Amino acid sequence: MSKKSKKHTLLRLLKYILSKFKKHLVIIIIAIIISSICHVYGQLFLQTLIDDYITPLIGEENPIYTSLFQAIGFMAFVYAIGVFTTWLYSRLTVNVSQGVLKQIRDDMFEHMETLPIRYFDDNNHGDIMSYYINDTDALREMISQSIPNCVSNGVLILAAFISMLTLNVYLTMMIIFGVSIMLVVARYIGKKSATYFQARQKTVAKVNAYIEEMIDGQKVVQVFTHEEESKKKFDELNEELCANTTNANIYANIIMPIMGNIGYLVYVAIAILGGFLAIKTTSLSVGAIASFLLLTRGFTMHINQLSQQYNSIALALAGANRIFELIDEESEKNDGKITLVNAERQDDGTLKESDTYTGIWAWKNPKSKELIELKGDIQFDLVNFSYVKEKKVLNDISLYAKPGQKIAFVGATGAGKTTLANLINRFYDIDEGTILYDGINIKDINKNDLRKSLGMVLQDVNLFTGTIMENLRYGRKNASDEECIEAAKLANADKFIEKLPQGYNTIITDNGDNLSQGQRQLLAIARCAVSNPPVMILDEATSSIDTRTEKDIQDGMDKLMEGRTVFVIAHRLSTIRNAKAIMVLENGRIIERGNHEYLMKEKGKYYELYTGAFELD
Predict the structure, then answer these.
(1) Domain 3-327: which CATH class?
(2) Which of 48, 55, 400, 615 has a Cα-to-Cα distance from 565 of 20 to 30 A?
(3) Closest Cα to residue 535, out of 402, 354, 339?
């Protein structure tokens, strides 16, 4: 990280602290100052204690210790204040650090939810998880320990330096010379250590990403006996992590011994020079020497402790920089103004906006206040799209789907079928052409409202930790239990749900690992039914369901699709025979279109696929 980047990161962290914890910060700084003054005052008071209270009592036949005890009592009171203020700022620091980290995690997650699908396609999920775990943990250590230690040691160093100047200027100059050497050494070693700590933080993210990937794909690893190759790859990443961590810790661990030994040399030099000055001159008393030596030990120790924080701060800044990179990622643009509203039909046939759910939806233009009934009329007009600019995925795609029609897409993997579904949802925006939804350019529709009008069942089902009922309600958060159960019956998911120990209250964990693949897909279909969308997209929706189960749900699917515009992406060609139109895609182009009977008569690509196999590779 550059100096400018470090400064920028520190300023952003300071804004987080000041945003909610200004009062805490003021109290912490005051407490640190009081604690430091009490500590240094105790060391400085040693001169007074020896010269004014102990030395006069030496040789006395009947010494009176009252004044000595009073002085010791006073110092005990001073140290008690120091202990209390130390406890106070330590306690408040915990509150501040945890509060700041909570706010940062909240901001990270909140912003992450605004990122486009492209971001998650381009970044490893394990690496993203590392932001929340490793990077925030490094940040916690800096806020709760390193920064308070830096402030505390800084104040102690300043107070000790001023105290030493009042005692003897010549001895203080020797201290400055020794400390200068310590700082040069600390800066050199600290830079080396920081470089490796930053590399370690990045390597930790790589290791986490690889472990997460292997856990998700463990079945595939074992099926293809890829264990040795997986271990080899992990060993390489782990070796890199070990090397970076070892180098970082080597430099981090040698700072303290080196700084400590330089401090001891300075201490010895001060003791010799101080003793010489005490013998040859009257400028130094025994108490002054004792106090100065105590201040010297504390001075060098605090500088040593200050240098120890360099590595922790460097590691935390590297983590904070990664966190802010995530927060600074550009959010998904949502500049559409047309929204989706509940509507009710009046006696004259016109639509009027309703505050309650009526089952009728309409597009609302905020400028004209016009309501256009949501029917599900989709039209592609000369659409071109590419994930990477140099390589087009879709070329001149033109098609239409009238309300209630079922449109099927078939073609080999990579032909562009799923991409079409992603474009309807505006997970990605097209390069050229237009997509109209009920005659409205989808770029003019608010993305949240656009997606609310679409139901989607994916090949890869994602279920969330919670009850089956809660997962069904993902389709529509305010849906009643009865509506969810009705949707499950429609998708024929009710049969297996009722057989579960807790029925609809059965807890789903680990993305539904306690259910079969077919059961998970039935829940996804039922969840889509709960949302009751006018347009449905089925992306290999029955690919993981056996033939018998498929027949069981086909009637339910037909009921679900009745009166809706449906886009079906299927490898099983038997499931799309009743489609209004079938689009055959190849290399991002529609090469054939028509219904099943027409395409079979044409004896083209579709005919070859249908007669050759019922499943596409």
Answers:
(1) mainly alpha
(2) 615
(3) 402
pLDDT in tens, 79-116: 899 899 989 988 898 888 888 888 898 998 999 888 88
Band of pLDDT at residue 541, cut at 50, 70 and 90: low
Calpha distance 126→128 (Å, rounded): 5
Cβ contact 529:475 at 8 Å: yes
Strands 535-539 and 454-457 turn out to be parallel
Choose among 470, 572, 482, 450: nearest CA to 523.
Answer: 470
Nearest to 456 by CA among 556, 530, 536: 536
Rounded to an integer, the average pLDDT of 504-517 is 80
Q: What is the pLDDT of residues 347-384, one digit of tens each?
A: 888 888 888 877 788 899 888 888 888 888 999 999 99
What are the angstrom distances between the C-alpha of 158 and each of 33, 176, 313?
Answer: 11, 12, 21
Res 4 pLDDT > 60: yes
Instruction: Identify the CA nearest to 284 among candidates 297, 269, 298, 271.
Output: 271
Residue 361 structure tokens: 């939806």
State mean pLDDT over 300-308.
Answer: 77
Query: Do residues 435 and 380 touch, judged by C-beta distance below 8 A?
Result: yes
> What CA–CA distance (Å, rounded) separates 344 from 364?
13
Structure tokens at 194: 């920081």
Q: Which of 131, 255, 259, 263 is nearest to 193 (CA)?
A: 255
Residues 6 or more apart in contact with residue 262 via CB below 8 angstroms: 178, 181, 182, 185, 300
Closest CA to 102 of 63, 161, 143, 50: 143
Q: Contact 134/208 with Cβ under 8 angstroms? A: yes
Residue 272 burial (C-beta neighbours within 10 Å; 0-12, 13-18, 19+): exposed
Contact 44, 291 (CB under 8 A): yes
The residue count for the chain: 617
Angle ∠(498,504,506) on CA atoms, nearest 5: 100
Level-2 CATH architecture, domain 378-612: 3-Layer(aba) Sandwich (3.40)
- Going from the C-alpha of 205 to that of each of 133, 232, 457, 575, the distances in angstroms are 10, 18, 32, 43
Share of the chain above pLDDT 90, in %: 8
Alpha-carbon distance of 453 to 534, in angstroms, equals: 6
Query: Rounded to the nearest 10 degrees, what angle do helices 22-48 and 286-327 cross at?
Result: 160
Given a contact cutoff of 8 angstroms between Cβ atoms, the answer to whether 374 and 400 are in contact is no
For 375, list phi and psi in degrees, rounded to 5: -110, -25
Looking up tokens 């429609």 gives 490
What pLDDT, on the 0 to 100 scale, is given for residue 614? Answer: 41
Q: Comparing C-alpha atoms, which of 125, 53, 550, 182 is closest to residue 326?
A: 125
pLDDT digits (tens, 9 = 90+) for 191-249: 777 777 778 877 887 887 788 778 777 767 776 677 888 888 888 888 888 888 888 77
**Is residue 362 a contact partner of residue 354, using CB atoms and an 8 Å limit?**
no
Say whether 319 sits in a helix, a strand or coil: helix
pLDDT at 542: 62
DSSP state of 480: -
pLDDT reading at 445 higher than 50: yes
